[in-house]
Amino acid sequence: xxxxQDVTGMIKIKEKMxxxxxxxxxxxxxxxxxxxxxALPILFSMGNIIVTSLNVVKExxxxxxxxxxxxxxxYFSKLVDDVIQSMNYVHFDxxxxxxxxxxxQEPIPPRAFLDINAKxxxxxxxxxxxxxxxxxxxxYYFSNTSFNGSFEYDQLEPxxxxxxxxxxxxxxxxxxxxxxxAREPGHFLYQNDxxxxxxxxxxxxxxxxxxxxxxxxxxxxxxxxxxxxxxDRTIFLLDENGSVLYDDSDILISQxxxxxxxxxxxxxxxxxxxxxDDYLLVYQPFSNGDWxxxxxxxxxxxxxxxxxxxxxxVYMLTMALILLVIILLFVVNRYLQPIGNLATIAKEIDxxxxxxxxxxxxxxxxxxxxxxxxxxxxxxxxxLGQVKLEQRMKRKAEMAVLQSKIKPHxxxxxxxxxxxQVLKNNDEQSADLILSFGKFLRSVYKGDExxxxxxxxxxxxxxxxxxNSMRQHPIKLHTxxxxxxxxxxxxxxxxxxxxxxxxxxxxxxxxxxxxxxxYVKGGYVFVNVQDDGVxxxxxxxxxxxxxxxxxxxxxxxxYLKEPRKEFGIGLKNVYERMTLIYGDRFELHIQSKRKxxxxxxFRFPANTKMEVEDEGSSR
Length: 619
Fold this sequence. Notes:
It is a multi-pass membrane protein. The chain is an alpha+beta fold. It has 20 helices and 17 strands. Helix 14 crosses helix 15 (about 455-470).
């Protein structure tokens, strides 16, 4: 007999099941039934295949890793052999030994340094080997060109002692800790990044040490050898104490290898349990010395490289399931897909993509909704395009003023003819003036909105040459442009108005000079234009500076109110152009005192990209 409590419990269960059925859509129910009846046999078959093939895949994976490790061992051993062979060449070279033997009795002549350095370059050509020979006496050393920096002999005494403890025909392999301790001021490793360093001593026939040879390779050389291996594989080279000499991930160099204990307990491989992924470690003795070479790779990645051959049946069953699901989804989603498309498009628009369109054309509510949606996006995109066009027209307005007055090609042809005639009359000064004026006009009539800072400064040089021809007292132009600043792309003519004002109002009709300085610092370009003219007092300076204290939004609003306003090429126009391009990241400051000249300082980002037309297209 069922009690009232049992009946109540069953009723609650039925109500709960009804709520679940109501929450699940018909599409979800249909998919669930298909998945259940197809997944059970497929999962059983997949489980059986995985269990039977797991051991085979593991064995093949370990063999593959051991083969890759042997390749790395061959690469590294060959590199160490090359270093030792280069040292042997020096050791048995009669000219080098003779020079070093004489160095114990008398100073080594400078010519010997040039000859031996050239010989070291020849020995180590087409390689990453860095080599230095340190005579036992003297303050100078021999080296190839890839060996960097200077050092103090006192800092190398511990290394000399290591080499004195071995035979002259033996090679000492420096430990990771010794390399780490040597990376300090005064030691040659402070400016050299070798991760493998070998050393040996040279002696004369009496057994006296004449010099010490140090040779090694940096991490880049070893990275070049391992770049053909799998990207997810990490190669370690351990010294005889178990410290890391080389780590292509550059994390554990000079540190004790964290899995030495497991390596002592296992034969040649083991698996490391990690929170992110399990790692397969394969290791073997290094062929050249008492070192150890280790390969670490995510275990699942290693399994995936070989597991494809053992999962063919799994893929076939999975493809059958996917095919049935695709057919089902096609039938179920045939009428519901447009709503999903609209939702996807809404997400893309939220991410900032206004180019996307639904392109859904149906004679129902969904079709009308999608058409209105597309029309709204078209209007928004047209409005944004209009704003961009207005800003582009504003930046190009002053260029049009300069370029629309006369025919530039006619002027250039006339100037070229005049220059040839002047040169025939041996008037080189006038010819140079015509050449500078021609270059100046070519720069003016180019259609480029932006050029390199180096070209802008060159334009100023031509401008000053032309101006000096019309002045009784010439103006000197000094430029100091750093290497980093030369190739920075800048708006055209942003310096000329400053230089023009300095000529007309600052220096006036007197002798004077203008200095242009540019450099890059902290991701910004700093350009300073300084003259030694009459300057201005504090009141005029404050008035001038305040006229440049408005932002990009205010400038655009002013432009929209005055759409027919023409642009000049004055300092205010320069400020407007630079602010439109760089926004709040652009700064302009003016410094001046009466009779002490005036300085205009620009600061704007160095990484701003602007379109620069090819020079040939504007001629």
